[in-house]
Amino acid sequence: MINKIIAIQGNNPSKLKPETDTSIFLASEMQKKNYKIFHYEPKDLSIIDSKVIADGYFIKFNYKEKKFFKILKKQRLNLIKCEFILIRQDPPFNLQYIST
């Protein structure tokens, strides 16, 4: 059974611009295919007992609302449960993103 979870490592959603940010577009398209979106920042990524773990939250995006995202559930997630991981950051880039 495939876990229908997509993880996005990226900037805090409050800093994103829904009209231009492709991360939101990609996440919205995956939501249409019944994927759950898990979001975390690089600072929240750890290796614990040989597992890659992220402290983040499940999130839902909606272009039609003024506040275009809603945090559904905060949790710690083993990223092996994700089908895909999208790593995304707006410039300027830093070594934290490159090293993850």
Give a verbal description of the structure:
The chain is α/β, with parallel strands linked by helices and 100 residues long. Helices cover 16% and strands 39% of the residues. It is built from 2 helices and 6 strands, in the order βαβββββα. It has helices at 22-32, 95-99; strands at 5-9, 36-40, 45-48, 51-61, 69-78, 84-87. Strands 1, 2, 3, 4, 5 and 6 form a 6-stranded mixed β-sheet that branches. Strand 4 (51-61) and strand 5 form a beta hairpin. The longest helix has 11 residues, at 22-32.
Radius of gyration: 13 Å
- What gap, in angstroms, lies between the N and C termini? 27 Å
Q: How many separate helices?
A: 2
> SSE order, as H and E?
EHEEEEEH
Helical fraction equals 10-25%
* Structural class label: alpha/beta
The rough form would be described as globular
Q: Sheet bearing the most strands, described?
A: 6 strands, mixed
Instruction: Classify the beta-strand content into a percent band.
Output: 35-45%
Low-confidence stretches: none
User: What is the average per-residue confidence, as pLDDT, rounded to a whole number?
Assistant: 87
